[in-house]
Amino acid sequence: MDPLEDVLSLLEATGHLSSGLSAGGRWAVRFPPPDGVKFNAVSQGHCWLRVDGVPDPIHLRDGDCYLLTRPLAFTLASDLDLPTEPAQPLFTAAAQGVARAGDGDEVFLIGGAFSFTARARALLLDNLPPVLHVPAATPEAATVRWAVAEIDAELRRQPMAATLVAELLAVVMLIRVLRLHLARDPGRTSGWLAGLADPTVAAALRGMHARPAHPWTVAELARAAAVSRSTLAARFKEVVGKGPLEYLTEWRIELAADRIRRGDTVATVARAVGYGSESAFSVAFKRTTGLSPRAYRSQVTQRAERR
Fold first, then answer.
1. Fold classified for 3-188
2. CATH topology for the 198-306 domain
3. What is the pLDDT of residues 117-133, one digit of tens each?
4. Cα–Cα separations (whole angstroms), residue 75 to 32, 92, 195, 227
5. pTM exceeds cut of 0.70
6. Which end of the chain is more exposed for a tag (fewer CB within 10 A), N or C?
7. With the CA atoms of 183, 249, 243 and 122 taken in that order, what torsion angle do they form, in degrees rounded to the nearest 10?
8. What are 127-180's pLDDT values in tens digits?
């Protein structure tokens, strides 16, 4: 069982493409803080990226892409010393799916965003640095470049179902970027996501995700990881920031909340996530979320009715 796949499935990641950006000459475009996770990929030329609150600007080259994981304003520009123009009027005036900045077409960027369920920030995004940059020059980026090229081809040629295919490819790109980040720079990741890059912790995580309802003990998880009980407990706490059984409880509650949102009864959910009684499950659920399972269901229903 793959914990990253588990979490991404629970968060229901969906790619949404925006108009492309064609630019040339001297130009600088200012973007407001995005909703969700913003991405851009450079399919032609080069430019600069500056993100508010991030000390160093990033030089983006042909084939590079980046993910912006926080709601931070940012600037794309040929020269960061230039005065900026707001992005919204440019994209409102986009023709045939392309917004234009400056004078010329030396640079072309594909852009979009990923939307998630409401728990995305706590489960995934808070564990990531604010910007993930994947340079095209790195050999690991080949699969990301493939996804970018395929997205670009779908949008330029517009065959049948092009938008759907491009959005699915964008989700593929998201997973590839997360994989590359974990392989290349695990030190800049925290929480359970950092645990995936640690062989000892990852073995325990895979066990818990494979059988979340199993009555795990630290000793049993340690055997799965082929280390001592004390080693696993210390390493898990150091990397993930909490003990393995605390993590297991929180993951069970995430799974339970998902099933409640889908309409399962509280008794069914309790059994499915490893609780011997509905009352024990309700206590754990309220301790973790601040709401009883029935209050949580009522809140979800009210939110859905207001939409």
1. Jelly Rolls (2.60.120)
2. Arc Repressor Mutant, subunit A (1.10.10)
3. 888 888 998 899 999 99
4. 9, 18, 33, 48
5. yes
6. C
7. 50
8. 999 999 999 887 767 777 788 788 888 887 888 998 888 888 888 888 888 888
